[in-house]
């Protein structure tokens, strides 16, 4: 047996061993604290050993017939492992490591040899083309979450071209599913780039920490302080904007609950100049060496930041699965911690969340432009009856998580949430039936829950913007990108606004948030439910944005429609930050006046 045969045999054995270990961890749920972490260490170790071996024996392996796509497949598996760890832990370093490996595959064209136009490869390599398609889909998802907009655009173009090429060269194969994936990313990019934020969705210490109010936050003391370490995020709507298993709304919430590294935010240097005029390549190491710079991620992360809260992002769950995940997180929740649950779903079975919308054609001195509200749908499931023969209210209305014709199996009732109120809970319901969950308040089994309930109807100047299947949820948008949501409300895109005007608008909003922070931290009427979470930067930011959202919608919609078009928080926040307070109203008025949209609002005595 030749030396090359020995090397090739060892390589194949390492591949098989790594693949077996990979299969054991691939389907481990991305929620709950994994108690068999040693399996993950084993599979990482196996792939790193395999990667190192192919680097050291590259020339002999190539002589023995190693294809470049096989190297790409190994790197792709490593990237997949890192991304899986990110989804389980929310640690940014894993996401960055995945990006590093995927970018190396792209820059070195590891899968290019599988191109059917190459003389060395033909239609027999259809399996390799599928590997390449999966690589592009996975790299697109990582780049989306990292906000690498230029890379997303490049990958989307190449991905579409690859699918078109596959359709042309493999006519006997159905690529319908891959065409749908292309349509998904195009649709996602259209929405995401329409409101490209000057500021990121992630929590930025540069933009979201307000120097003037920081001392008040630091000095704030509550009888009890809860730590925010765990969240569950899910949405279930027909035809909602999504890519892969990440919907637009969960994408926005996921980023909203993470830290942004200070400085360049994952911006990797392509080249930098030295004093002697030569350049250092930082693109992931040279293609010739075959070495991926494992330490490159250190330049793309910020070790000074606290860990991100862990987030279980669940795609289109059944009700039983959703409850099981909540139970797992609740069971493992550390003492003095709070769980955030974000649920976005329709309150009507098997329908889009495209509801009647309030639209404004100008000043609210007249409400002639109001769209009539539809009659309430009274076709509710049979409610639970208590011992007195009265409806409890906990099982009358619901959120719908399921396909058509699935009956009550797909109904999530307020009563289904009650058992989880034995532990601290921050619940955000974004639905056209969200107010049904007011029944939770006062029905808790140990801990009073913090509730954010969305409006039942969206409100826009242009009714076309209310299409949920095109723009996602308005309430979620306000909680994750408040100024962009404000711009969408009044009918224009930040991209249509001069950068200086938009930046000044951000400053107005930032000053308002800083002032409201001081009010909350010095209020004597702040409910303990809010007091015990106000010290957490993520939850505090959500509270401030809720105050803004409620105020904006209050001034935009006529008072007689407030029940339909305003969000609700329970327990109540102090009156000093209500829409009626001068400090809140004046801030919204300043912002509207700055953007020349005051006529769309009805301000009182301003």
What does this structure look like?
Residues 359-381 are annotated as: Disordered. InterPro entries: SCAI (IPR022709). One of its GO terms (molecular function) is transcription corepressor activity. It is built from 20 helices and 14 strands. A hairpin with a 2-residue loop joins strand 2 and strand 3. It has a domain at 195-261 and 292-349 and 396-600: Rossmann fold, CATH 3.40.50. It is an alpha/beta fold and 606 residues long.
Spatial separation of the terminal alpha carbons: 90 Å
Mean pLDDT: 83
What is the annotated CATH architecture of the domain at 195-261 and 292-349 and 396-600? 3-Layer(aba) Sandwich
- Give the overall shape, derived from the CA principal axes: globular
Order of the strands making up the biggest sheet:
6-1-7-11-12-14
Q: What is the CATH first-level class name of the domain at 195-261 and 292-349 and 396-600? A: Alpha Beta
Helix vs. strand class: alpha/beta
**Percentage of residues assigned to helices:** 40-55%
Number of helices: 20
Task: Characterize the largest beta sheet: strand count, sense, and whether it forms a barrel.
Answer: 6 strands, mixed
Stretches where pLDDT falls below 50 for ≥5 residues? 115-122, 263-291, 362-391
Quantity of strands, as a count: 14
| CATH fold field value of the domain at 195-261 and 292-349 and 396-600 | Rossmann fold
| Residue fraction in strands | 5-15%
- Please give the radius of gyration in angstroms: 26 Å
